[in-house]
């Protein structure tokens, strides 16, 4: 039990972010639950954590304005009574575009949410005083970066930027005792397709069906606990990346 430590999870109102926040709460962390549009899911999780005897705070922020993203670290610290020791940048935005039909608004929005906001959150985390003991940051990437489609141009550019920022921040923040890693999930939850279509795509991976949010939670917990691991991306995708570039039946 990690009593007394504080974790901030962005995108904690739904999907994988919500599962990660619940998993860290189960390990005894007080939770800063960030959300933007998913107020209902965040509220449900907040009430669930409190009912289980845990501690949590609801924190709303629009991450498309990355210049304000770092305020979340200060707000979580103030609400929960100490420095944030774990930051999970799980919030992501997704849209389709290509270089041919790229617009400034879509580019800026996706780069702000998927790259700039996590970077400024990492900066705010590292600027805390006092610093937490054994600080850990985990960023969310995407296994499809290994077979990126140009039809998701802005989305993948944001993820590529966050990948580089993860490694650079790990190098810079290591002397401060802060570890920075990433998780690259595969097909974890249905997105804009039917359950039947999702299941059929999962079956195409080398390990077949079964990958779920619990596997991403386990990966995050490992990286939080692994004291000698930094600058690493843990791919959790049932082997999807092994299928190579252009794996259109999966992507």
TrEMBL record:
SUPFAM superfamilies documented for this protein: NAD(P)-binding Rossmann-fold domains (SSF51735)
GO terms, molecular function: oxidoreductase activity
Keyword terms, alphabetized: Oxidoreductase
UniProt KW Oxidoreductase keyword: yes
InterPro entries given in the database record: NAD(P)-bd_dom_sf, SDR_fam
Entry keyword Acyltransferase: no
Family assignment from sequence similarity: Belongs to the short-chain dehydrogenases/reductases (SDR) family.
Protein name: NAD(P)-dependent dehydrogenase (Short-subunit alcohol dehydrogenase family)
Species assigned in the record: Roseibium marinum
């Amino acid at each position: 039990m990690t009593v007394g430590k504080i974790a901030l999870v962005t995108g904690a109102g739904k999907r994988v972010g919500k599962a990660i926040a619940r998993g860290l709460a189960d390990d005894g962390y007080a939770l800063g639950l960030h959300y933007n549009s998913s107020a209902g899911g965040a509220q449900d999780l907040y009430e669930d954590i409190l009912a289980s005897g845990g501690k949590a705070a609801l924190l709303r922020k629009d991450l498309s304005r990355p210049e304000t993203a770092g305020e979340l670290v200060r707000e979580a610290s103030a609400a929960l009574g100490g420095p944030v020791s774990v930051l999970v940048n799980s919030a992501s935005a997704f849209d389709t575009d290509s270089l041919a039909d790229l617009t400034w608004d879509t580019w800026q929005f996706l780069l702000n949410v998927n790259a700039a906001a996590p970077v400024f959150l990492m900066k705010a985390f590292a600027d805390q005083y006092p610093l937490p003991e054994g600080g850990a940051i985990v960023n969310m990437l995407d296994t499809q970066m290994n077979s990126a489609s140009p039809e998701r141009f802005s989305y993948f550019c944001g993820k590529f930027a966050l990948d580089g920022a993860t490694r650079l921040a790990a190098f810079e923040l290591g002397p401060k005792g802060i570890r920075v890693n990433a998780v690259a999930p595969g097909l974890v939850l249905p997105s804009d397709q039917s359950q039947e279509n999702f299941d059929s795509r999962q079956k195409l991976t080398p390990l077949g069906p079964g990958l779920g949010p619990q596997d991403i939670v386990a990966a995050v917990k490992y990286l939080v606990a692994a004291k000698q691991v930094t600058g690493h991306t843990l791919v959790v995708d049932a082997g999807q990346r092994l299928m190579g570039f252009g794996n259109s039946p999966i992507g």
